[in-house]
Input
Amino acid sequence: MNVSTFLKPLFIVLAVAFSAVANAQISAPGSTGSDKTSYPVFTETDSIFVFCSAAAGSAEGMLSVTTNLTGTKTFLWEKYEAGSFSFYFSESADATQSVINNLSDGCYRVTVTQGDNSQVYRAWVFNDWFTAEAEITESNCDFFQLTSKHETGAFEYNDLSTGATVLLNKVVKVQWKKGDEIIAAVSNPQILNPPTANTDYTFRVYDQYGCEALMQVSYESVVTKAFFTVDESGGEAPLTVTFANASENGTAGQYEWFFFRDLDEIKEESAGSTTPVDSIMVVAYDDSPVFIYENTGTYMVKLVSKKQSPGLVCVDTFYLEDYIKVDTSFIAVPNVFTPNGDGTNDEFVVKFWSMQSVEIDIYNRWGKRLHSWKSGDVRGFEQTWTQTVWDGRGMGGRMASPGVYFYNVTGIGRDGVKRHKDGFFHLFRDKD
Output
């Protein structure tokens, strides 16, 4: 006999039998996690299926067995109790599947019988549950305290040979979250630098089987963050600066603005002094003040924002990132003047920067004064002033002849410095 011919049909029979066994199984629809037993004595290994439950004592487990046996068959379900398996449920059907649900914790065995054929499967079911509580137990200007506690049940199964109890390792973890951001992985974190907005925090307790409990608490902010911007940080005096208060969570009407004196003035006064120098020029209480710097100098500004809560006042301070710089005074005089009516350079314009008072006199070559202009409160020129200083006419209203003329400018700057400038300029114009 050909040996290979004999073995070939035997191999086919064994392969079909293995495939049939492989298609039969026990599963747990709706379970969120699974594990394997580690019996101390019993030699086989069973599946452990975990279901997330709402509370202790819940019975939400489900098991399903699928068989490859055909025809009418019996599904006998048993539950392990007090060291042995006892009847739980039985049905006879042509179906290839049997399901039991609303299962409490324990080990379940199903025997599928069809004629002389039978298949046996086992699995453990655990209903996993958590309870969680959370609250804010302390809140002040520096921190607030998140406090939580939780409970969960242990997973215990039995060695099927000896009945000895085996504890399944259940890894319980906690988190505190702000939105999607994890801010702590401990039960009772202390949160420094509290936010200036009311914020919800969620406590989460969970394990490796996908079960969890959530608890949300709301933090009501008691702190403020001072901040402001300015529309002008430099220019000529008088410089008008608008302060835009952008503080977070401050109490309206409780802002304090400290406008410091000129930095050089403070340094000069404090040099060699053994007593503290008052560096504050003005204190204002507007929410968003407008301040006019009348004199040149270098100035710092501080804002104090307050948040008033019952029994508590939290304060924050913000200093301007750089100084407000009000420029020193100067005078600029042109050397050419063309009052010919063409719209260009038709006026003799003297530009002033940070001047308090100015007086301008214009003379012809023989020393006769032809024009005079003065102001005791010069404001807002910013090197673009176009008010006529002289339009080229003399005292009698007649147009001055082309030629060389002389000017004399005197004044006092807003830095307290006396300013003087004199010289000549050319007047160009077609003769009448």
